Amino acid sequence: MNDSLLDKRMKGKVISVHSSRGGTGKTVIATNLAATYANKGLNIALLDLDFRAPSLTTVFSKGIRSPIKHWLNDFLDGRCTVEQALINVSEGYNLKGRLLIGLANPAIEAIRNIMEKSRAWEVTAVKKLFSLRSTLFNDMNIDCCIFDTSPGVQYSSINAVISSDISVIVTTLDALDLKGVKNMLAELYDAFEKRTVVLVNKVFPETRIWSSERQKDLISKMEKDLKHPIIGVIPCYCDVLQAKRTSLLAVDQPSHPFLRNLEEVAEKLEHAI
Amino acid sequence: MSASENKSPTLNAKVLLTRLADEFNQVNKKIDFLIELNGKMLKTQEEFLQRITNKSYSSKDIKLEPDAMALLSLPSSLRKTVMALYKLERATAEELASETKRLRAVESASANQLVRLGYLKKKREGRRVYFYIE
């Protein structure tokens, strides 16, 4: 892969990672996708927009070396700038490029506070998510920004979706997940005319899709049904499920097959943007 | 053989395109006139309401939030304008048209309708009218 080409494709782009329900592996995908791109030399900002169930503070605990002064909640409330709300964790993980993370405050008080926000505040939040592009891409030399959103249809996730360039919907093959994705695509993504791709994750070995023929067949059926491109099919790995949430696979186990699958997804995403 | 039939196909296409552009300009002017007329009618309506209710009534007073959920309930043509304004922060109908790739008149009509509904505000600066989300 030509790095300058990768740089050009991803430059100034915002990717949101979303799902219809919880438990699809959305955060594992978002964090490892960010680390994969950073390992390729890109400067990445990963923002936790799942304000109701923040998780990045735990995932990146190894890389956070000083007490957190500002949260993304503070940025959206106008109490700090986006620069102040970002933490550079690249050194902690020896990444080739810079990885900056913006964290959602996991304190119950902060979660309750977010749930009580007015519609006027939500409008300001969307404006801020749009305006952070200029700071990230022009002032901070960030190449690409990834939003890890909350699952389903709620303000924080729709705000993230409408302010991004492309959305990756992570789903399992569970009927409820698929039904939810279908509804979201029709009623949310198509309404906003957003470029959207679907990533199938946690596919059980029993489905025997591992021959390329079967995989092609599954992808073709799903694309016909969802009317959107399927960007990848990732098997369910027990060790990924059982791994500590503080383990960043892209750094701790770079040769893991999950990562190989995700690298393919990352490359397809570069072309889809 | 007539003179026009003697012209080359490129020349004929150029004449046709010039005529089409003229027609579009005429349509644009008519839409602008209708928008202006609509604005005057609304003002008359406000004045009438003010007289009969003895209360100040103005569409400028109405404020609705164009938040994500509200956007979902808007018709797609209006939603597109709000989405463009989120990106541009404030814009003229022409700037909106360049963002949405629609006609200036379409954007002008859409943005003015959103102002009347209370989702957007507009401000005149010299000869230019800027739309924005408050």
Write a structural description.
The complex is a heterodimer of chains A (273) and B (134). Chain A is of the alpha/beta class. Chain A has helices at residues 3-10, 26-39, 56-59, 72-76, 82-85, 90-93, 108-115, 119-139, 155-162, 175-189, 212-226, 238-242, 249-252, 257-272, and strands at residues 13-18, 44-49, 86-88, 99-102, 144-149, 166-171, 195-203, 230-235. Chain A contains 14 helices and eight strands. Chain A has an eight-stranded mixed beta sheet with strand order 3-4-2-5-1-6-7-8, with helices on both faces. The two termini of chain A are 16 Å apart. Chain B is mainly α and 134 residues long. Chain B folds into two domains: 1-57, no CATH class; 62-134, Arc Repressor Mutant, subunit A (Orthogonal Bundle). In chain B, 67% of the residues lie in helices and 9% in strands. Chain B has six helices and three strands; from the N terminus they run ααααβααββ. Chain B has helices at 3-6, 9-53, 68-73, 76-88, 93-100, 104-117; strands spanning 90-91, 121-125, 128-132. Chain B is globular. In chain B, 19% of the residues are buried. Classes of the chains: A alpha/beta (273), B mainly alpha (134). The interface between A and B is medium-sized, with 18 and 16 residues.
Short overview:
The complex is a heterodimer of chains A (273) and B (134). Chain A is an alpha/beta fold.
Summed over residues and divided by their number, the pLDDT of chain B gives a mean of: 85
CATH architecture of chain A: 3-Layer(aba) Sandwich
Number of domains of chain B: 2
Give the overall average pLDDT of chain A: 91
Q: Largest sheet of chain A, described in full?
A: 8 strands, mixed
Using the coordinates above, name the CATH class of the largest domain in chain B.
Mainly Alpha
Number of domains of chain A: 1
Helix share, percent of chain B: 55-70%
Query: What's the Cα radius of gyration of chain A?
Result: 18 Å
Please provide the ordered H/E string of secondary-structure elements of chain B. Answer: HHHHEHHEE
Distance between the termini of chain B: 63 Å
The percentage of residues in β strands of chain A lies in: 15-25%
